[in-house]
């Protein structure tokens, strides 16, 4: 597979990280396999997560093909970049095609990245996740690799203005123990176990994060740590309202 676009994009991103003096903490990256397919499952706290989740595989010299909503591929600037990096478009009206493309990538030895929560978590805790990632790993006979991100929400997240030029923002990237689901397993239980591991990794990153919010900045801290982010219940209600609003506009 030709890699004309992906390496320069990574180099550019690394240059920006250095210029902004970002502080990275990566743990468990040795768990990313150096060869063969794998499903990398990440939590979702910002619009930049595919960049940082991809860094989890960088020490193993792997490139991650992320499954991302089709609308990104339709963008005049983002689209060519996404296609050039061989990411996988997801059309929610025709999900079978994206599943087939992801399965083909996995069987050819690629790492496929999935944000199993589907949308950004407003509460900065791990939302309920679907069993699709587990089923995909089983079908391709590859491991599931849990990854959690903490810190990118301070740069650009749902409902907050972009603050991409902040300097010195710490970014935590945690890679958990691989999971090896197989045919005959209870996929719903494996999915629950995956969510548990993601939640534990994320809580560890949040509790060990070197910064605490300044006055007026408490929005990026989860409620259980004293922040003003919505609780999981409040976030779920907000997501539901947003979905209903979007649906009414479509129907209208």
Describe the model:
By secondary structure, this protein is an alpha/beta fold. It is built from eight helices and seven strands, in the order αββαβααβαβαββαα. The chain has a seven-stranded mixed sheet, sandwiched between helices. α5 packs across α6 (132-140).
Radius of gyration: 18 Å
Q: What is the percent of helical residues?
A: 25-40%
Distance between the termini: 44 Å
What's the shape?
globular
Query: How many beta-strand segments?
Result: 7
**Strand residue content:** 5-15%
- The string of secondary-structure elements, in order, is HEEHEHHEHEHEEHH
Q: Structural class, from helix and strand content?
A: alpha/beta
Neighbour order of strands in the largest sheet: 1-7-6-2-5-3-4
| Helical stretch tally | 8
Q: Name the poorly predicted regions.
A: none
> Oligomeric state of the chains?
single chain
Please give the largest β-sheet. 7 strands, mixed
Mean pLDDT: 95
Question: What's a concise summary of this model?
Answer:
This protein has 8 helices and 7 strands, in the order H-E-E-H-E-H-H-E-H-E-H-E-E-H-H. It has 252 residues and is of the alpha/beta class. Helix 5 crosses helix 6.
Write the layout of secondary structure elements.
Layout: H1 6-19, E1 23-27, E2 38-42, H2 49-55, E3 64-69, H3 70-74, H4 78-84, E4 88-90, H5 95-107, E5 111-115, H6 132-140, E6 144-150, E7 170-175, H7 187-208, H8 232-251
């Amino acid at each position: 597979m030709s890699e004309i676009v992906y390496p320069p994009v990574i180099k550019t991103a690394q240059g920006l990280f250095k210029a902004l003096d970002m502080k990275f903490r990566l743990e468990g990256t040795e768990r990313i396999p150096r060869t063969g397919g794998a499903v990398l499952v990440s939590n979702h706290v910002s619009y930049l997560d595919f960049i940082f989740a991809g860094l989890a595989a960088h020490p193993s010299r792997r490139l991650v093909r992320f499954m991302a909503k089709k609308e990104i591929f339709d963008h005049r600037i983002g689209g060519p970049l996404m296609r050039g990096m061989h990411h996988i478009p997801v059309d929610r009206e025709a999900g079978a095609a994206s599943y087939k493309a992801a399965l083909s990538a996995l069987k050819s030895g690629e790492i496929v990245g999935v944000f199993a929560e589907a949308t950004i978590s407003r509460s900065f805790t791990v939302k309920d996740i679907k069993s699709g990632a587990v089923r995909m790993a089983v079908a391709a006979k590859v491991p599931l690799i849990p990854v959690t991100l903490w810190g990118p929400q301070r740069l650009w997240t749902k409902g907050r203005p972009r603050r991409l030029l902040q300097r010195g923002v710490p970014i935590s990237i945690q890679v958990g123990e691989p999971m090896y689901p197989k045919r005959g397993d209870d996929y719903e239980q494996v999915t629950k176990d995956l969510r548990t591991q993601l939640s534990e990794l994320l809580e560890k990153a949040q509790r060990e994060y070197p910064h605490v919010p300044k006055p007026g900045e408490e929005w990026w801290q989860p409620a259980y740590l004293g922040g003003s982010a919505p609780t999981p219940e409040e976030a779920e209600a907000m997501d539901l309202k947003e979905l209903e609003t979007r649906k009414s506009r479509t129907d209208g």
